[in-house]
Amino acid sequence: MNFSNKVWQLTQKIPKGKITTYNIVAKKLNSKAYRAVGQALKKNPNAPEVPCHRVVASDGSIYGYKGIKNNKEKINLLKKEGIKIKGKKIINFKEHLYKF
To answer: I need a surface site. Which of 10, 23, 55, 76 has the fewest CB within 10 A?
Structure first.
């Protein structure tokens, strides 16, 4: 199984209403390659079934979704799951954080 497949498989474990970070995913895969995690999620062929929208930056900032710089769709998916967002940051970030 290649790195991207491992990222997608792990991402499927993030529960609805929770988020995790690129760094946490990388560490769980015994890697420091958090940017490679982002690249794998960018190419996720099964979004949102493989919920890459639940992976955000370590400070709670929200970046692109499915390779698109506009993160409006990602924000809308997170809001539908009960995550509150102000601007491009998650409110009460630590309350929603999932660490596997």
So the answer is: 76
Given 25, 37, 47, 52, the catalytic residue: 52
What is the pLDDT at residue 67? 67
- Provide the sign of the torsion angle of the four alpha carbons 50, 14, 78, 25, taken in this order: negative
Report the SS3 class of residue 86: strand
What is the number of structural domains in the chain?
A: 1
- The full DSSP string for 12-47 is TTSPTT-BEEHHHHHHHTT---HHHHHHHHHT-TTT
Render pLDDT for 11-60 as a digit per residue (tens, 0 to 9). Answer: 999 999 999 999 999 999 999 999 999 999 999 999 889 999 999 999 99
Taking residues 91-96, report their average pLDDT.
95
| Known active-site residue 52 | yes
Q: Write the CATH number for 76.
A: 1.10.10.10
d(CA 23, CA 85) in angstroms, rounded, equals 20
Q: Which amino acid is at 66?
A: K
